[in-house]
Each structure stands twice: as structure tokens, then as C-alpha cells.
Design brief:
Elements lengths: L4 E6 L5 H12 L2 E4 H14 L3 E2 L2 E2 L1 H7 L5 E5 L6 E5 L2 E2 L7 H11 L2 H14 L5 E5 L2 H5 L5 E6 L2 H14 L6 H17 L12 E4 L5 H16 L2
Parallel strand pairs: 1-8, 1-9, 2-8, 9-10
Antiparallel strand pairs: 3-4, 5-6, 6-7
Helix pairs in contact: 1-9, 2-4, 2-5, 4-8, 7-8
The chain binds 2'-deoxycytidine-5'-monophosphate (DC).
2'-deoxycytidine-5'-monophosphate (DC) binds next to α2, α4 and α8.
Length: 229
């Protein structure tokens, strides 16, 4: 069966990564979480004191961007990909509220996007990849054979992120999360470079009222349609 590129874009916390991860596992494709890459750059900036009081040291980050290498390695126990920043597993750290609240401004920087898109395109060269993000169907892989654009209400998305953090034993406030979700929606849709938008040839999926299982069935149907054409 021919291998294809699958691009899954949409708002934050709408379950993109759960569906993308699950699909990749089922069909034997590689899964890449492009948001994790922007989160890793943000973590690098925090740890190297390149962000102070919301102020980003752009000159310094620009100089160092070539030294920021992001990769994914399957955890042998969980069978899930772990994000590595310069070889170190940062999977848990990049999901913290601190990183979540600083990642949007970092992801609007042109040189950061350029570097990440380059790394993402290299990862998809051999096809057989499911990548999720904001600009995968529009900028990273405009020729992807299957594009999905996912959406759900802000309240539902905040609740999902709240549950996820709680399940991991991390501290969370619903109010803080919904505020963060709305702020990120605004920045993601209104930034100058590669704003979040549905590619003309993407299929729209509103999963507000769908269970994960219903969504999985729907997604496999879309995959089968494209690969059996
Ligand atoms: O999907 P996520 O919430 O982990 O993404 C983190 C941030 O990175 C989010 O604010 C938007 C940004 N992002 C982006 O600009 N482009 C992508 N392809 C993926 C994520």
C-alpha cells in the first residue's frame, strides 16, 4: 500500500495528538507532534534565561536556534514517543503550565518557525508520517494526501487539558487553563506567519460531541478512502 503524509491541524487541546498518535500506531506510521517542538524551544529559552518577564531575548535566541535539536524517541515501556531536546528527555517538562503560557509568542518568531519547519519537512521526506500542529496542511506539507482540520469548543478543550494534567498528578486551575486556551487561540489565528487556518482541501472535524473511539473510527475511514483510491 502506498505511504502517504497525514496532516492534522487545529486549535490547542482539541485532541489532535491523541487521534494522531493512535492513528499512527494503527497504520504503522511515524507520529510527530510539531507543537512539542515549539514547546521544546520554549523550554530551552526558559532554562537558558532567554525569557524574562514575558520579554524574549530575540537576538540571543536567533543565534542559538541552530544549536536546538529536537528529536523523538519511542519509550520502550509506554511505546509512546518522548520529546528530546538536545538528547535529553523533556516530555513532562514541556507540558507544564509555565511552558504552555510562554509557547505562543515563541512560536510566532519567524526564525523559530523556519528552523522547525525545516526539521519537520526532513522528518516527512520518506512519507508514512502523521504530523499534528497548526500549519502542517498549509505550510509544512501543502501536498499532504490527507489533511484534517480539528475543532471543538474552548470549554470542552479546557476541560480535557485540565483532566490530562490532573491525571498526571500536576497542579491545574480550570480558570487559568481556559484563559490560556483562549489566549492561544487568538495568537495562533492572528499571528503574521503561518496563522492557524483550515487548508482548502482539509476535511473539517468538530469533535466536541464525539468520543475518542468514534473519532478513531472516523479517522481510519478517511485514511482508507485516500489510500484505496
Ligand atoms: O499543540 P500544542 O498546544 O502542544 O502547541 C504548542 C504551541 O505551539 C501552540 O501555542 C501553537 C504552536 N504551534 C505552532 O505554532 N505550529 C505548530 N505546527 C504546532 C504548534
Amino acid at each position: 500500500m502506498k505511504k502517504i503524509v497525514i496532516a492534522i491541524d487545529g486549535f490547542s487541546s482539541c485532541g489532535k495528538s491523541t487521534m494522531a498518535k493512535d492513528l499512527a500506531k494503527k497504520i504503522g506510521y511515524i507520529y510527530i507532534d510539531s507543537g512539542a517542538m515549539y514547546r521544546a524551544v520554549t523550554l530551552y529559552s526558559i532554562e537558558n534565561k532567554l525569557i524574562n518577564n514575558e520579554q524574549i531575548n530575540i537576538t540571543e535566541l536567533k543565534q542559538r536556534i541552530k544549536d536546538i535539536h529536537i528529536s523523538f524517541l519511542i519509550d520502550p515501556t509506554t511505546q509512546q514517543p518522548n520529546t528530546r531536546l538536545n538528547g535529553i528527555n523533556v516530555e513532562n517538562k514541556i507540558r507544564s503550565m509555565d511552558v504552555s503560557s510562554k509557547v505562543s509568542p515563541i512560536s510566532t518568531l519567524d526564525f523559530v518557525r523556519e528552523a522547525m519547519v525545516k526539521q519537520q519537512q526532513a522528518m516527512g521526506k520518506a512519507k508514512g508520517i502523521v504530523m499534528d500542529g497548526r500549519d502542517i496542511g498549509t505550510t509544512v506539507f501543502p501536498d499532504a494526501e490527507l489533511k484534517i482540520y480539528v475543532t471543538a469548543s474552548a470549554e470542552i478543550r479546557a476541560q480535557r487539558r485540565y483532566d490530562e494534567l490532573k491525571n498526571k498528578g500536576l497542579n491545574a486551575s480550570f480558570e487559568e487553563i481556559i484563559k490560556n486556551v483562549r489566549e492561544r487561540d487568538f495568537i495562533d489565528q492572528n499571528r503574521e506567519i503561518s496563522p492557524l487556518r483550515k487548508a482548502d482541501d482539509a476535511i473539517l472535524l468538530d469533535n466536541s460531541k464525539m468520543t475518542i473511539q468514534q473519532q478513531q473510527v472516523w479517522l481510519i475511514e478517511q485514511f482508507n478512502k485516500v489510500t484505496k483510491e
